[in-house]
Amino acid sequence: MNIGTLSGKSFAFHCPMENQPLQPERRFKWWYLVLAAVLLNLIILLVHQLTREEYKSPARRSAKPDTATGAKHRLEAERLNGVDVNAVSNWDYSNDEDKMGTRIKTATSTAKEVLEFDFPYQGGSIAYFTIRRKGGQTDMYLRVSKGQFIANTYDESTCRIRFDQGKPVTFGILPAADYSSDIIFFESEQAILKRIRKAKKIVVEVEFYKEGKRQIEFDVNGLKW
Fold it and tell me: In the chain, where does DSSP find H-type helix?
């Protein structure tokens, strides 16, 4: 505080001081921000935990049978119920119509074993062998839930298929038109179909990106096509 005089009278005035401590009410506002951040983090953690529990529930698994976990549970349930898995036809059929009125008929066989890949496709991948007839044209393709096939048009990519106990036969493969890496199409589909009609199982040997060649077994017994 400074003291001065004006017209013979003394008076006092206050000068602001530098480096004053933060006022109590301002400190109170900072604590509010800290508490709000802590509460927000707790809410996020709670929602994340609830979401994980919902995903693990049996109802959620049954709603998504195409997952690796779902396939393992299905096969195990069949064994526990005394079902001979090898004797059951593994073909799933569909007969639909697209928006242009074209009929699309498919028959799909699910691989008997789950493929195990390294990161980023770890956790189990399921392979599907599908025969499709669309607009009078029949084609055949192999699809995986995770992973990348190696197939291109410039070096005539191939795979091998063994029908029952016969010798493996080499067939050409092609990538999808949109170059999706999780699906490949077979050439000579009519020749393959003819052999499948007489077979009970097939083993497809195909190469995956950074995973090398893998052999995938399918139950093809009892195809109705």
Answer: 24-56, 58-63, 68-80, 189-196
